[in-house]
Amino acid sequence: SGAVVNLFLIMTMSILYEKLALRLTSWEMHRTQTEFDDSLTFKVFIFQFVNYYSSIFYIAFFKGRFVGCPGNYSKIWSLRNEDCRTGGCLIELAQQLAVIMIGKQFFNNVKEVGVPKVMAWFQRKKVQLSKSHLKTRWEKDNHLPLNKGLFEEYLEMVLQFGFITIFVAAFPLAPLFALLNNWVEIRLDAQKFLCQTRRVVAERAENIGIWFKILDMLAHLAVISNGCLISFTSDFLPKLLYQYEHNWSLVGYVNFTLSHSPNGTMSQQCRYKGLRDNQGNFTPFFWKLLALQFAFVIIFEHVVFGICRLIDVLVPDIPEGLEFKIKRERYLAKQALQDSETIINVATGLVELPTKYSRMVLDLTAELGGLSSPRDNILPRANPNTHKLLSGQSGSTASTTSSTTVVTEVKPVLKPRLTRKSATCDDLSSKDKEDADKISRTRTRSAKSDRRSS
Questions:
Q1: Which of 43, 112, 144, 451 has the fewest CB atoms inside 10 Å of its own CB, making it the most exposed?
Q2: Which of 191, 209, 227 lies at the terminal end of a domain, its last residue?
Q3: pLDDT tens track for 358-417
């Protein structure tokens, strides 16, 4: 019953925490939308983390730890600290986790089904339209409520990830319930996004933003949390140490964990769970167990983190084949940019072409001008007007227009040339050489006339 009451309080405070996070983020006045979104996301997550996990962390690591002993109980504000039940805190932790996790999933599914329908009904009442007035499909879609985005979906999945990783040692069935919930969640989300709300316009995003860092933080926290659960909350290490000291037998273990009340503190002799002697001091077994628990946590988290790092090194984020293709695309893009700049500059007479590239550009210039070339059956023929601009026949009017025309006409030639070898002297026929020399002489005469006129 206490877990159910706690669940209702959690669901109520969840709404208040989201509004508080939005108000605090608005006061910060971030410069960009990305900074605002990251700040809001982190605040909402921190609030929800405390809201959903605080009671679970209390039961797992604090409840029953600082109780004291008969005659010397620990108190806070005149209230005695709460102790665990007879079966221990691990069972109570599993019950609390199951109620909060399953109850949260149930409420979220009901909200995703009911809230859009209620909003659609209010929307129709607001515009004073009935279902009979909405004849066409686009009219019906236009009167649906707006979609609120994927923030709630991300938050729900991240909190679920925390439930099934941070406390999986206490409730091993948590991943199974999460899987069953996600099967239902897929269909409910599809119904909500496609039929009950307006369809959103797809937008490209570089990544999932700060959610990735939050998931990484939860993964690291889960390793430490599960190590502490196994070490401090469960009876795994106490039983193991007891077996080591008693010939690997558990006979008398329960009686060994019960201590007698200190002398003179109780009218009757009573026993309580705690590794203490008759004076209320901790026994040597307690200190051995405490050292073993800390050693287990350190070794456990180092081994798990080491395995994670090893897998991260052995399994690359990008497959080798895909990485090779990405590098090749970048190389081809750079080559295309360099070739286009060289061709444009040479064709417009801005720079002199290096010797090793002269034949290749002459061949390309011949193709652009409509002259014969050994590659006429491969490359597309350019606009004949380009040859006039290159040869200087357009006079003084071909200044800015000529550059623009050359760029436009060169583009179709760039892509086929990326996969072909550069032209050499042997590749050129006598006819091509004559055409190239003709173009060169024409350009020289045009340049001289321009200098005289200037």
A1: 451
A2: 209
A3: 555 555 555 555 444 434 433 344 444 444 433 444 343 333 333 333 333 334 333 344
Q: Of the candidates 52, 53, 26, 51, which has an alpha carbon nearest to the alpha carbon of residue 39?
A: 26
DSSP 380: P
280 domain residue, yes or no: no
Structural domain tally of the chain?
2
Is this prediction's pTM over 0.85?
A: no
Give domain status of residue 300, yes or no.
no
- And the tokens for 331? 């190389």
What is the largest distance, in Å, between two alpha-carbon atoms of the chain? 124
Domain that holds residue 167: 2-209
- Gap between the Cα atoms of 436 and 417, Å rounded: 19
Tokens of 163: 């439930």
At 122-156, the pLDDT tens digits run: 776 766 655 555 567 777 777 777 888 888 889 99
**Could you tell me if residue 22 is inside a domain?**
yes
- Which positions ≥6 away from 6 have C-beta within 8 Å? 55, 96, 99, 100
End-of-domain residue from the set 161, 179, 209: 209
In a domain, 352, yes or no: yes
